[in-house]
Amino acid sequence: MVREGDEVGKCQLSDMLPKFRYNTAKVIIDFHTHIFPPWVIEKRAEYVRRDSCFSLLYSQPKARLITAEELIAGMDEAQVDLSVVLNIGWVSHELCVKTNDYILDSISRYPDRLVGFCGIQPSAGDAALVEIERCAKMGVRGIGEMRSDIQGFDLTDKLIMQPLVDTVVQHGLILLTHASEPVGHRYTGKGSITPDVLYSFILAFPELKLVCAHWGGGLPFYALMPEVARALPNVFFDTAATIWLYQPKIFKQVSDIIGNDKILFGTDYPLISQSRIMAQIKSAELSEQDRTNILGRNAQKLLSKEAV
User: Fold this and answer.
1) Which domains does the chain have, with CATH numbers?
2) What is the CA radius of gyration of the chain?
3) Does residue 71 contact residue 83 with C-beta atoms inside 8 Å?
4) DSSP notation for 11-57
């Protein structure tokens, strides 16, 4: 296991995407999971005190923290082939870097099961760009899960975001941001990255491949407006935590509005088990092909180098 401060050797991956040992049309890919280094899990209370994002999400003991090995075990149980492992929106640039090391180590140890996204603090300026470069060379496929509302930056501030987006696009990476609904019940970590914020960001950086977590806080529904629909060619939406947010009919309704090719199966594991979200998808009024696309085929296309 990697401990705080350990060096991680450069990953010798021949491809930015793991080679699917199950190269079939029915691959299952969980696009939204979180893992943590053992040293964070062991010193949880310390990091709750040190970082406001970690504190918001994990100050309650019932909020599970898992290692890569525990994620793999959960994937095996639920018959998930591949998982995207996300970092969180650490406020501290230093903690972004140190926890990125663990993600880099994990994807090098499980290259056919895990795809890595790294954490970035845009307010760190050039240091954040250097970290993107480092992680891209080590095989990550994206940046996220970003939390502008907690990390303290404006997604539409071009002074901060233009260099970051340029670097992400240059390396063919994907950016994944948290999103939340402007109405409805409150819950831990809901935040304020609502559809209006996301839409302004999308308009500012149309070339960016963007995944909006948690159904984009409802942004797909606004695609009934023609100008919004036209702004979404590079935007995708994951289904993380959907059972706490929406009825199963959301899968059919969003598919009808923006197309099922824009929907990515995601769970927020270990917050919610993979099998619960999979059951929700299977209960939705979808064709077998639509289910196949949502459960993995869409993610497989997005993550492939050919999609860059």
Assistant:
1) 29-302 (3.20.20.140)
2) 18
3) yes
4) P--SSSS---TT-STT--EEEEEE---HHHHHTHHHHHHH-HHHHHH
- At 74, which helix (H) or strand (E)? helix 68-78
Q: What is the pLDDT of residues 159-185, one digit of tens each?
A: 999 999 999 999 999 999 999 988 988
Collapsing DSSP states into helix, strand and coil, what is residue 116? strand
Q: CA 102, CA 35: separation in Å to the nearest integer?
A: 9
Measured CA to CA, the distance from residue 259 to residue 254 in angstroms comes to: 7
Q: What tens digit of pLDDT does each residue of 98-128 get?
A: 999 999 999 999 999 999 999 999 999 999 9
Residue located via tokens 């950086």: 205
Cα angle for residues 24, 28, 30 (degrees, 5° grid): 145
114-147 in b/e form (b: 16+ CB < 10 A) is bbbbbbbbbebeeebbebbebbbebbbbbbbbbb
Structure token pair of residue 248: 């199963």
What would the two tokens of residue 71 be? 């994620």
Tokens of 300: 């497989």
